[in-house]
Amino acid sequence: MSQKLTILHLVSLMGMGGRCATALRQVRLLSARGHRVMVGCLSGSTAGERARAIGLQVYDDFNFRRGLRPLAVWRDCRLLAQRCDAEKVDVLHAHLSQESWVAAIGARLCKRRPVVIRSRGVVVPVKSHYFNRLLHNKLTDHVIAPSSVIAENLRALPGFDQQRISLTPDGVDIARFNPCVDGFAIRAEFGIPAAAPLVAMVARLEKVKGHTVFFDALARMRLSSSVPGLRAICACDERSPGALQAAIDAAKSRGLDASIISFTGLRGDVEKIIAAANVIVLPSLGSEGSSRVALESAASGRAIVASNVGCLPEVIQDQKTGLIVPHGDPSALAAALETLLNNPMRTGEMGSAARNRAEELYDEQMMAQRIEAIYMREIAAHKP
User: Fold this and answer.
1) Do domains 6-171+363-381 and 184-361 have the same CATH topology?
2) What is the pLDDT of residue 16?
3) Which of 170, 203, 232, 316 has its CA 20 to 30 A from that of 131?
4) Over 80: is that where the pLDDT of 218 sits?
């Protein structure tokens, strides 16, 4: 790609949630492709810290206030326009609703209007009121959806121009997450025998992720002794104080002590956690506009048991790369886990199929190329 762009990504999240991680992955990849990439964020945010760590320009003096706060929004819009004019920004890329409004309005205050791109990562349908129709149908040049369920929700918006949306799946680092990663050190760290059947759950500690459904399924399996030597590992990001201890207590109340389940807390070596497991479980109760863990597990060559919510049935092919079960049903979840843990050959075949599919559809380099192509196409379409 000969043309190099100046791109400003706006990220209003403070922590390192899934959407923030996706935004920063896009930032890193686009920068590696030779574009000049900057980040606009909140002071003290993880997005700003991570962007600075890889040498990017960061503007962390935006408010991005939630709710109806016209003065705060107007202040951000004027500040954004000044930055875009000074830096000669070609593309404004917003990731959540609060910065999307700032991008849409701020772009129109610029002397040379940049293209406005929105990534929408939530499965909740856009409410069909005037302001949302204005934002998505008129003020935003293009919307990127990471999954079909989100794309279809957008296409159902009255008056939505079908050409304004692209289904662009999230990507995964297929070099970092691969079947050759050694997970035995993780097993040794938590006292899990090398031959023990191990199921792992990797998710932030929030109710929507379905931890208690997982605990209930494990309790059923333990009582029935359906999987001899069963072990489980839970890698969880504690977003609120006390959440990890509450999860440990919830497991203990179901008879799951440290001899059955190990809690790792937040880890920087998730690829090794996944590699240590025979099967990955995603028992989400809702949400899942995209699923980083599903992609990472697939790239790692692991079969996945997941609930039927959001993008999970799209990323995981039922009976081919994993098993899909009804959400909130610990009995069905236990049965699916038993099926795979007691059939290593089938589980291995599913894992291999998952890896092949990740290479074919979800390589993060392809994601970066698709996003870059959207930028170029929209810039060409809006040239005077």
Assistant:
1) yes
2) 55
3) 170
4) yes
Q: Which CATH class is domain 184-361?
A: alpha beta
Domain residue ranges of the chain, discontinuous segments joined by +? 6-171+363-381, 184-361
pLDDT per residue over 341-356, tens digit each? 999 999 999 999 999 9
Smallest Cα–Cα separation from 28: which of 181, 176, 147? 176
Q: Which CATH number fits domain 6-171+363-381: 3.40.50.720, 3.40.30.10, 3.10.129.10, 3.40.50.2000?
A: 3.40.50.2000
Query: pTM of the prediction?
Result: 0.92
